[in-house]
Structures are given as C-alpha cells and as structure tokens.
Amino acid sequence: MKKECRFDILDFPAGTFYDGLITGCGGLGLTIWGSKKKLFITVGQSDLWDHRGGLPWTGKQNFRDIRAALEKNDEKKIRELFAEKVTGNVRRPSLLPFARVVLHLPAGSRFEKGLLDRTTGLVHLPVANGSRRGRVTIAAAEGRRFGCSGLPRGTRVELVPAFRLSQDLVRRGFAAPEEYDEKDFSCFRQALPADPSAALVMKKTRGGFSAVCLRGVDDEKRLRAVECPPFPALRQASGNWWRAFWRDAPEIELDNIALERLFCRALFKYGAMTDPAGPPPGLQGPWLEDHALPPWQGDYHFNINFQMCVSPGLPAGKFDHVKPALDLVLGWKDKLARNAALFAGVRDGFMLPHAVDDRCTCMGGFWTGCIDHASSAWMAHLMYRYCLYTCDRKFLAAEVMDFMVRVFRVFRAMMDEDAQGRLSLPVSVSPEYNACQMDAWGRNASFQLAAVHALLTDLREGARLLGKKPDPAWKKMADALPRVTVTKGESGEEIALWENQPLEESHRHLSHLAGITPFGTLDPDSERDRALIDNADLTLLHLGMGRWAGWSFPWASQIKTRLGNADAALLMIELWNRTYTTATGLSLCFPRSRMVTTPFDIREVMQMDAECGCLSALFDLFAYHEREVIFFFRGIPAGREAAFRNIRLPFGLRASGRTGGGRMTVTLTAEKEDVRTLVSLRSGEKIPVSLKKGQSTTISGKI
Predict the structure, then answer these.
(1) If DSSP codes are grouped into helix, strand and coil, which group holds residue 420?
(2) Which of 274, 501, 536, 546 could make an S-S bridge to 494, C-beta 3.0–4.6 Å?
(3) What's the DSSP call for residue 67?
(4) What is the dotted CATH code of the domain comprising 3-50+92-247?
C-alpha cells in the first residue's frame, strides 16, 4: 500500500460525527471526532436491534388481492394490506444508538491532527502541552473490545449512554439505563423493551482505558467482574488482524491518487464492517450515530444496497467476508417459505421482501418493495456468483440450487400465460420509481425481467456445473418471457421501466438497466442489444444526475465500463468521491453540495453502500466477468497507465496486469480447479484460455 493511501487525517475542529475517522471490526464501530480540547468516540454496534414493530406477513398480503386492488386503483385497500404493526408508538424495528466516550483534556493540553493507520486499524492523536508532546492511541478488536492509551495525566474519561443523547429512545419507551461511574470503573446497562439488555463496561487505567460491549448481562456483580483486556493486547490484536487482511489483498495503480486512496479506504471499511466475527452490515455498517436512530432503521435493503455492501468481497478474494451475508438469508428459510405460501400460494417457494431487520421482519408500508421479488433473485444471483468465485460445489448443491429453484417457483406463480404460451409479469415494479403511489407498477418491468432471466441462466449453468440435467421448465420460461420491455424514445427504441412507462425523470435507481449489470442479461457488444442500450444511455444523459443518490454513481460507472466508455466510468467515481464524501472520507447518501445533484433530503446520512459500490466499480475498471467472458481494462481509457494485482475472478482465477501505451499484459493463475474461459481485450478480440489447476498464463495485446 502506498504511503499516500495508508492514512486518513483528522483535522480539528471536527465538529460533527461526519467529520470523524472510523475504525472497528467484529460488529463494533468507532467514530472519532471532536475539538482540540474534547474528543468524542461514538460507539456503534451493527446488531443492536429493537425488534418491535414491522409488518407480519399474513394471508391478506396475497398476490391475487394485491393485483385486484391495483387494477381497481383501490389505494385504501393497498394501504390497508400493507399497514405496519404498531407497538405503542413504535412502527418499525430499528438498530439503536449505543454510547459515546468523551475525553476531556486537562488545562493546557490540546489534540493536534490525528490519523488512522489502515495497516493496523489504529487511530493516533498527537497531544501537545507547551513544549511537551505525547500521543493518544485508540484501538478496536474482535469481541466488541476497544480502548485507549497515552492520555495526559488529568484527562477525564466520561462514558455517556445514548439514552442521554437521543430523544428517539425516550419516544420508543426506553427506560433510563443503570449507570456506574467510579475512579477505575465505569459502566452502564441499557434495558431494551423486547430484547436482551446492552451494556458497556470500562476499566480505567493510568493514561487510558479498556472497554467491552456486552448483551444480556443484567447482574451488577457480573458486570463488575467482566475482564477488560489491557490496551497492549488490544493494540496487538488490531495490528495482527489488519496485517492478515492486507497480506493477500488486491492492489491497483492509477494515474489518479485520489482514486487510489478511495480504493484503499473503501477496502479498509469493507474489511471492518464485514468481519466474519460480526453480523453482516446494514446500511451504515457498525458506524451508527449516538444521538439518533439511524435513517431507514439501518435495515437490510435487498433492492441494491445490501448487495452493494457485500459484493466487493468477491473480486477482493475476501470470501469469508461474503459468506455470512448469504448465511443470514439462508437462515430465514422458514420465513421466506411462509412469505411465498401466503403471497403466491407456493408451498415450496422462497420470497424475500426488499427491507427487513435481522430476523426477516418486513418493514412494511412501502408496498412496492414488499412485492419486489427481484430482491430474492438478486440474492440468489449473489449466492451463485459466490459459488463461481470460490468453486464451492458443495454449497451450490446443498443450498444455492434449492434457493434458486424456490425463487423461480414464486416468479412462475406471479406470471400470466396467453393462448400462444407467452409469459408476462402482470404486476411488477421498478424500485422506488413513483415511490409507493398507485402508478408505481406495470406489466413486465425490465428490472424484474432481467432478474428472472439471470435466475434462469444461473439455474441452467449451475445444473451443468453439478453434472445434472437442467429442468426443461427453465428454458421454456426463458423462451416465453421477454428479456426486456421496449418503449419509443427520442433517439429510437430504448429500454422502458415497464410497459408504456419510459424513464421520464432523473431517478436514483437505474433498475431498468439492470440487464446490463448486475444481471448481465443484455449484451452491449451485440448488434441485437446495442442500439437499445445506447438510446437508454442517451436518455440518462438528457435527464441528468440531479436526483441521483450516492450509490447511483458507482452503478452508472459499472454500466459505462460495460459500454466501453472508460472516460465516463472513471468520471462517475470521481464525481462521487468529490461530492459524496467528507474531509475524512465518510461516505454520504446525500451530497454535501449542489455540484452535480440536488439532495432529496436535508439530513447528513452516513451510508456505506455507495463506497462499497465504488470499490466494486474500481475493480470493474480493471477486470470483470460476464457470462463466460473475462474483460480486462475496459474501464481504463486508452493511453492511460494502470495496473492491478491479485484481483480474483470466477473459477478460482487470480489475475494481475498492466496497461499503458495502447497495450496490455495480464497474468492468470488457476488456483482451485481446471479452467476453460474466454478473455476479452479492449480491441474486441476474445482469446480462449485453458489452464490446469496451479498453472499460469500471460496474455499480451492491444487494448
């Protein structure tokens, strides 16, 4: 890692949470911010839920009645069908703010510029008092442990429960926590109305403290007996973890240091928030504010956000960071099956709503998301790609094929068939377009069609990988169902959102183009699809980016890469990096200025999907795989110099390469099994590659 990419700098005053540095692992997130005299450490946990509220799926939410209400334009009935369960004044489950630690420096002392060292996960904060100099170090380690050393004598350490900072907890009916504050010991225990209590125990030492976060420990004696590891052990654990993480991590080189820094910063955050010792990340990962409930309850959104947070682990080779996300969804099988039975009358199906808590309780209210079955197909696609990258045939056979088949059955139950055997989706949505109004649906949404066709292709490919005969029903559906819905645009035929619904406004969700990516059901290099795709791209340009969210930009970059528009692919990432990040690199959902977009909310919201999406988009500039072809350097403009090392690809391939002067060189190594594939150069030439396990080959040519 280049020295320029190794550190993030904290300049004081860092007056808000959004100006801070972040570190963490194992479900624990620390955000460090404040002033030269007073430092705040916001402590968040990515699985601290209040599980009350939400939408219990019942027989009322069945496809037949939903369709009838929509076709009758019966808004009252739709609102009634998707009304949330209200417990007291609690409408939905939510992740919770947890705690703040405040470091009050003694008179005459002040913090100077701090820095985060990504190679160790440690935050260092120089302290000055006249001519005297010192350094405060903060560390986080697995087991929800963290601590601090190097505090000047006379520093006061204050532990503040979120209850004292957030009126949201009062409004949700929380009681005040039990608090203990003594010379060498501080602790609070926050009772939760319907969940195990949460506690933070801190042991204070000369020059610092060590702390641990606990659940379900309600006895004061047990809390006082909790062992808080000494700071040297925390420091060593953090360093060891991060050195192991970076040891085989991919690297990139660009003639743009800002994007190199973004790559390292995003990969660091990805590692911290997806640490297998903790839960899969929600929208904010573990970095939750301490004074308010997280926006959108910090939940799991499956119509892009969750997938965007998880996906970079595949090209990064961090497969153990991806698997817990898949296991989370597979752990909901009973609820997914119940949803499918109640919604579609399918007894052996799975259905995943678009927004849920960690128990798969549907958030409700937003009816278009509740019926968005592409959320299920997208997770199935991520599972299948995991199997391709890891060559894990056992997982494919034991879990993923069955998951895909069950998702397929629900889609089939949602379809109409005409007298000629042609299939259609009579009620379908394109995420968040027209919100949840009564005109937010139509026949054959292109997003849903792309999801279905990707699922059908994955099923057939998966069966062949396992040496089994594909079910003829999969090909029959693929032949009978349109791949995309077309409308007449200014430049000719282009991709519609659904029948008779062109893209009419700047919109943050690029869902109608999901056939380009992530599903790969449309081929930008084919004569059949290119004109449709180019016309849709022109419409995007005409309507502009004014209402995009942060995560729209990396998605657009990935689309531009596949169109071969490398300059635009880079520009999308650069625009996001300039307008959706803070001085210390925190990822925002809404822009900090009106340079290219207008925020659709006035709040500052730290959200990790866009930054992880940019990480995936940066990988794609160098290498990506689409339906039996590996594309290299398609997102690097001709004449620019660039290089990458250790990017992983499907079939257990590891790749490194370099481009410059109009030529490229790539080395491929088959690490897990024999491989036969095609490699595409920027010139359009496709080269067959055949490798035995353990073999390498080098490919050179024009880009």
Answers:
(1) coil
(2) 536
(3) H
(4) 2.70.98.50
